[in-house]
Backbone:
């Protein structure tokens, strides 16, 4: 049975492109995607902070603009940090939170990710909370527990919005990020179903029906359609391929 969740495809440019290059990429992607869409699909780009001004203009009315992180604090003496309010004022609609590269290289925890989700939601922004297991954790067979802990720690506490425009989850197995190794459609859907079941048991049927769960990890134009066909896969979070105009357009269009 088709679900009612609007498919969502997000690109994550990571620390790539200079602002002007980014603007040109977006400028070329927008018309190709716009012309190809024949049913409602949301799409967007999580870009470096230096690009938000230019990209807000390019994407307005077509796609969502996002950041790749935000501060867990509201304001104050946090050198180098950027607040959710600043992102919102720069035209961002969403931000990634808890990406595995932030966890790996900056020691970020799920508890901190939870605070960031709050800050974003306070600004009316969408938080895209990334979870996923390492290769070791997958091989040990422990991945379900790892994911459940990430969900518990990141989504705990009262008052969190579970509305589809306030929270998106992204399953990104660390072993599949930038490695060319992709989870099989069956592996992806198995974990997505597990996450949805967690939502159902811990947050109720409305949240389980509403929250979109994206798959990320070496998604490309050739494997996207198969991955997106899973009933619990509501879209994709795309790294490397989101820097290629035709490949990213094809991935977005394969969600139609
Ligand atoms: P790749 O698509 O390059 O594997 O990156 C995935 C990712 O980390 C998206 O956030």
Residues:
């Amino acid at each position: 049975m088709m679900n009612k969740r609007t498919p969502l495809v997000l690109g994550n440019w990571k620390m790539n492109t200079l602002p002007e290059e980014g603007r040109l990429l977006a400028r070329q992607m927008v018309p190709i995607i716009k012309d190809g869409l024949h049913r409602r699909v949301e799409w967007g780009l999580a870009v470096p902070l230096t690009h938000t001004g230019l990209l807000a203009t390019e994407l307005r009315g077509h796609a969502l603009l996002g950041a790749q992180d935000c501060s867990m604090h509201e304001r104050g003496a946090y050198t180098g940090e950027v607040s959710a309010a600043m992102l919102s004022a720069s035209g961002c609609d969403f931000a990634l939170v808890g990406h595995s590269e932030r966890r790996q290289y900056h020691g970020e925890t799920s508890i901190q990710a939870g605070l960031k989700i709050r800050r974003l939601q306070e600004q009316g922004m969408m938080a895209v909370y990334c979870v996923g297991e390492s290769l070791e954790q997958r091989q040990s067979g422990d991945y379900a527990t790892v994911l459940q802990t990430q969900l518990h720690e990141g989504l705990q506490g009262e008052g969190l919005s579970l509305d589809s425009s306030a929270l998106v989850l992204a399953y990104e197995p660390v072993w599949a990020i930038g490695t060319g190794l992709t989870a099989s459609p069956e592996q992806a859907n198995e974990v997505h179903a597990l996450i949805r079941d967690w939502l159902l048991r811990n947050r109720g049927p409305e949240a389980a029906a509403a929250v979109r769960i994206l798959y990320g990890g070496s998604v490309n134009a050739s494997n996207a359609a198969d991955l997106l066909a899973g009933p619990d896969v509501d879209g994709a979070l795309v790294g490397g391929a989101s820097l290629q105009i035709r490949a990213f357009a094809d991935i977005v269009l394969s969600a139609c």
